[in-house]
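Structure tokens please, single chain.
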Amino acid sequence: MLKILEKEDIKCIFPKRDKNSHKGDFGYVGIMGGCIEYSGAVKLANLSSSSLVSGAGVVRLIIPKEIAVSVMPYLLEQTLFLIDSKNGHMLFDKNIIDKSLEKLKVLAIGMGWGESIDNENILRYILETKDIPIIIDADGLNTLAKMDKSILNKTNCKVILTPHLKEFERISGYSLENIKNNKEKLAIEFAKKYNVILLLKGHETIVTDGKETYIVKRGCSGMATAGSGDVLSGILVGILGYNEPNVLSVASGAYLGGLAGELAEKNLNDISMRASDTISKIPEAINEIRK
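Here you go.
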């Protein structure tokens, strides 16, 4: 099934909340990333505003200990878990990784993560031993590209991959030209082969699990700026804190982010927009979806 996603399709993802609800009802979610070179990306992916204003109950930012000082001033409602690090990159310790993931409903991994052998060991360990939904983005995708992709068929995790076209080239082995000419076909083929939900970013975003496919036609040129992909990861992890990880819930994240970006551009302009402007319009976008 292939369908263009409409606002009416995703109202069910953002239901009114019971007055007796508490934060645990809407999910403890984790964002793992950051390194000494790219600490800014995880600040924004987290700013976890994007996760919190998308509805998560509690957001845990999991970062290398060495960048804590630079990240902490940006934290208000979020919680922090520090991973031992060397030269600004996480060190793999399965006991520490286990503790960092306790109680989490969903994990996003890779934003501003950098590249190291420890990252490969961390990602492999999570995929081999955990059974939570995991959104892999940015340097998480670059890390996955170096690994044997058959691990995706063996994991108990529900895996959501969020590449742009060049990242999809790296993880799939398809040429960029082939992807550009056959985006829907190759996205569906890859998702089916590896049993993942694939969110292929672009002017029209494709979200598929190989069986069900949505085309998301939201977004604007003002979103072509650093950090927009990180914001999307934050939105996705927020939504999956209180929704089942399926094609519709993932596609709704792309729709919400695109709509929020459009509202921000309307308020500002296509040149001056920053990714944080998209975050500021998420509440308004949710209100519009609920109408």
